[in-house]
Design a protein that fits this description.
By secondary structure, this protein is α/β, with parallel strands linked by helices. The protein has helices at residues 17-25, 44-55, 101-111, 131-138, 149-158, 185-194, 198-209; strands spanning 10-14, 35-39, 64-73, 83-91, 94-97, 117-124, 144-146, 164-172.
Length: 213
Amino acid sequence: MSPQPAPAPLLIACALGIEQFALRAGGRGGAGGPVTVLRTGMGPRAAERSVTRMLADPALAGAAVLATGFCAGLAPGMHPGDLVVAEETRDPAGTVPCVGTDLLVKELVRTVPGRTVHTGPLTGSDHVVRGQERSDLLTTGAIAVDMESAATLLSAVRTGERPVAAVRVVVDAPEHELVRIGTLRGGISAFRVLRTVLPAFYEWHRSLLLPRR
């Protein structure tokens, strides 16, 4: 019998040390292949540099890429700890459609029961969004904003064809703006949710490895 090909790796990208810590605290058991959690640093330029450099490694050829971490919710009624599954990411550099959104929603509902999961466009920014600017972004159809997801996914698909996705945890929202992540209740709630999401990411990744009928 010929040897089975090695499973495609999964690259999970986040920006902040606290996000990376939350993901590592969630454990690695149950992954369908090699998993790398990359801390890119804050902002779109840092994300672009880090992801492009990482995917140049032959060991990550064909890797699926999932951007995650915290985000700001744009829609009224969103709360810290809610989850956002992007249907696409967008910023001035381009729009990237995401793969397997429905499956991610299903797995997150199962993995993190009781948490609201929102789907829609996730927009990028090069700075923290507050006040009126948040309202302006909502009029574009986006439901949440962060500084790295759009740059991460655009960099990933530029290096080669691969499945990409973005899942973010709302850390602040129109009625729940925070000053600093991790210092108020909303930040702690978002951290606890981020610590539990890895099983959903692994199920998404495993689904990509299944033969298509």
